[in-house]
Amino acid sequence: MTIDAFQLYGTYLVDPPPVRLRAGKLEADLANGNLRTIRYDGTEVLRAISYLVRDRDWGTYSPAIAGLRIEQSDDRFEVTYLARCDGPDDTKLIIDVRIVGSPDRLDFEAEAIAPTGFETNRCGFCILHPIVGVAGSPATVEHVDGEIMATRFPDLIEPWQPFKDMRAITHEVMPDVQAECRMEGDTFEMEDQRNWSDASYKTYVRPLALPWPYEIAANRPVRQKTSLVIRDARGSTPPPAGMSGGVIKLELGARAGTMPDIGVIITPEEADATLSANSVLSEIAPQELLFHFDPGAGHGIDALRRFAAIAIVHRGRSMLEIALPCRSSPSSEAAEIARQMQLAKFRPDAIMISPSVDRQSTPPGSKWPDCPPLDEVYAAAHATFPGIRIGGGMLSYFTELNRKRVPDGLLDFVSHCTNPIVHAADDLSVMQTLEALPFITRSVRAIYGDKPYRIGPSTIPMRQNPYGSRTMDNPAGARIPMANRDPRHNGRFAEAFALGYAIRVLDADLEFLTLSALSGPFGLIAGPAEPTEQGGRRPLFNTVYTLSRLAGASWQACVSSSPSEVLSFVARDAAGARLHVVNLTGEERSVDCGACRPADSGKELLLAPFAAVALQLAD
């Protein structure tokens, strides 16, 4: 069966394949002028070295590249090009780039010059270290003053920068192989990008404590250089291990638990569409509806009446997500919402309440905005909504929860969301965010213990931007960070991503997981003008439907020999045991699941791109 790009990605635009650069045992992929998946002897050393330019809303420019020249030999490669960023008011930034690789060294140099002056939040190198196999491991950091410090990469996720004033960082890639990454031309610091579900530690230029946005002066060159130096003390070594592409093996693991209940979010703007699609909602049968309510956005009694109508038809549990304005006392604002709820005859089973201002991020060095004490907010909620479970946390992302750790003494549960396109939106980066989810949930458990825990709504498109004034419009259906619409939400990519997400958070013992709306840009059903495979149902429908049916079932871990490509788990309920397998890549993958004892199929599967299958297991 032929599957075209639109079915997979929701667009005919695809990420162009990278150019593989090689110098002896050193390899890197060149994509859009930057380096990805930098490997030595088959092992990933750095996830990326990129030269990035951010606008005042932390959006990332996509520079036009001209004069690209690539030269390769057995033990050397060289890349040169010019990149141009076009800013507002006809401003321009020109970047002259040179990349040189040898068997034990990689140099990436850039000189930026703005003929007109150029406003930016950040301009310069960004270096990503991987997290799998690196988290918690030793590192040596050299500071700009020459001090050398023996330390470790954070294991639990750090809310603030683990390392500042950096000149170089060294870590062990494999036994007897060290990698030093040296940064010149400015002062660098590292942040733990797992906060945003990025699968990396990010070393970046220009400390966050300095003002932003700032101006690059006209005709004043800004020069930077990043060097990766490999020190291999092993002597002769076997040939580099090839990248995955063989058979991926699955084996039953020891970990086990209970599948979470599944929620669907409904906004006032999508309430009427949800009522019209009630038959689809009934078919999915989510365990809870999550209703979003924001008085600051004009939501009032009409929205609550629509919510009440949906809740009656749904006949399941419901939660009201309140962005409390906090323009007056929390008790008076909660009382007004309670009055409107009573008039609308809407009584949810749970309320998640958070000050509206806490949806915006407070980066390191920034002043915290005015906000009532959270204990006062939660006490007001308990007093105003008696008999209803009260939850807190963040309506935005784990980043904000980690930086502003809410007091949980008055809370019945904690909650947050994640989003995979905060910093990068290419296909590889989005799927790699799944690697960070177990670190996020383990960090939440380290803070809040066994407090009931919910995640969502977590979708590929971004519903709000805590790091700028707005989410990014995306009328062309491109892959852009912080976009409020993403084409992959319409394709099988989203179906695979959501199932991978659910598998990666199984260990968290979640109470609820919400991965979509019913309608709209985050929904399971498409608008009338959007072509889909199943009569208006996006492929994501399949994942949410499956997870809703599995709610409350027992699960058992299944270990994949290549979890970045294929994930799986076993679910057991009254119908027996079934092995659920998902291909996270855009290519076919061969999977050996014989160790899991499938009942009615061969032990080897050929999984289509982004395909998810369920196999009955033998008793």
UniProtKB/TrEMBL annotation:
The lineage of its organism: Bacteria, Pseudomonadati, Pseudomonadota, Alphaproteobacteria, Hyphomicrobiales. Pfam families: Apionate_lact_C, Apionate_lact_M, Apionate_lact_N. Residues 563-613 form the D-apionate lactonase C-terminal domain. Residues 7-231 form the D-apionate lactonase N-terminal domain. It comes from the Bacteria. Residues 262-552 form the D-apionate lactonase TIM barrel domain. InterPro entries: ApnL_C, ApnL_M, ApnL_N. This is Uncharacterized protein.
